[in-house]
Amino acid sequence: MSESALRHRFRERYGSVPRVFQAPGRVNLIGEHTDYNEGFVFPMAIGFTTRVAAAPRAGRRIQAFSENFQTAHTCDLDAPGPPQGSWGDYLTGVAVLLQRGGANLCGADLLIESDVPIGAGLSSSAALEVALALALAGMSGAQVDRLSLARLCQQAEHEFAGARCGLMDQFTACFAREGHALCLDCRTLEYEADPLPPGVAVVLCNSMVKHELAAGEYNHRRRDCEAAAAELGVRALRDVTPARLAQEDGRLAPRLLRRARHVVTENQRVQRAATALRRGDAAGFGALMFASHESLRADFEVSCAELDTLVDLARRAPGVLGARMTGGGFGGCTVNLVEAGRASAFAEFMRAGYLRATGIEPAIYLCQAAAGAGEVGGA
C-alpha cells in the first residue's frame, strides 16, 4: 500500500488527517546470534517498511487497526493489561516502555500497514516496534533519542513477545543509512557505515517455511551461550578468543562447546568481512558468508533442510559470491551476494531449483540498502 493510500484509508476509518511514521526491515549480511553475546554484526536496512498512520485522540486510549491482519487492538494507557499473544502485544509493550521511560503519552488512533515479510527473518517485529514508538512519541510530543528508542523497543520484545533478542534489529531500524551496511559492535554500540561495493547485488531467497520450534529454540540458544560464558568465567562469549576456546574446550559440555565455537568464530568472520568490504574484496566477503552458514548449520544448529537447500543451490549458481541463512533460523530467508549483472538469472535459477527440490516456490527479493526510521511525507 502506498503512503497516500494509507493516509486515505486512515481518513476513511477515523475521520482525521494523520502523520505517517515508518521503519524498515533488515537483513543481516553476516554475524548471526552474536548480538546478544555482545559481539559484532553487519546488517543493513532493506526497502520493505512498516508504516503507522497516527493522529491524537481525546482520552487515554489507543485505538489501532492492522491492515495486514484485519484486526483491531485497543490499549488503555492507564491499564495496559498483560500480553495476549497477538500483534497488539507490540503496541502495548512499546506504550508501556515509553511511559516507564517518562513519556507522557496521549490517546491516539493508529492504522498500521507493512510489506516486511512476516516470519522471514527480516525483522518485521522490530520494524513494527520502532514505527509504533515513533508514532506514539510523535503524537505526544515526547522527545526520545534514537538509542533509547531502540533499547526500549528491544525491552518491549523481551517483556511482551517473549523473545530475548539482541539489539541489532532495533538499532538497524533506527540508525541505518541508505546505500550502506552497518558494522556494529554490540557491546560498545559503536558502528561504521560501510558503502556496499558497486557491481554487487544483495538478493534474498525466502524459503516460505517457518518451523514452529523457532521461537523457543532461539531462547534456548541464548541460554546455552550464557551457560558457556559462565563456565569460561567471562561476561559474554565476545570475550573468548579462538585460542582460549581451544585451550578450555574440555570444560564445556559438547553442546555448549559447539554454541561457543560458532559465536567465537562468527565474531572473527564479521571483522574479516568488514576488512574485505573496505578493500573492495566482495569475493572474500562472500566466502565468509558461506563459512558462516556452515557454522550456523553444524555448531549452532539453527538451519533447516530448506535453508540448506537454498545455500547448496546458490553455490552452483553462476555469479554467486556468497550465501547464508539470515535471521534466527529454522526457516525464513537466505541472503546472497551476487554479481549485479547476473541477479535476474540467479533469481530464476533459485526459483526453479528450489521448486524442483522441495515443491515450494520461493519468494525472491532484490534488495537495496535503505535508510532508517522516521516520519515520512506531509499531512
Explain this structure.
- The protein has 379 residues and is an alpha+beta fold.
- 43% of the residues lie in helices and 24% in strands.
- The chain has 11 helices and 13 strands.
- It has helices at 3-14, 88-100, 124-140, 146-161, 168-175, 214-232, 242-248, 254-278, 282-298, 305-316, 343-358; strands at 19-28, 40-41, 43-56, 61-66, 71-76, 108-114, 180-185, 191-195, 200-210, 320-326, 331-339, 363-367, 374-376.
- The two termini are 17 Å apart.
Sum up the structure in keywords.
Ribosomal Protein S5, domain 2, single chain, alpha+beta, four-stranded antiparallel sheet, 43% helix, 2 domains, 11 helices, six-stranded mixed sheet, Alpha-Beta Plaits, 379 residues
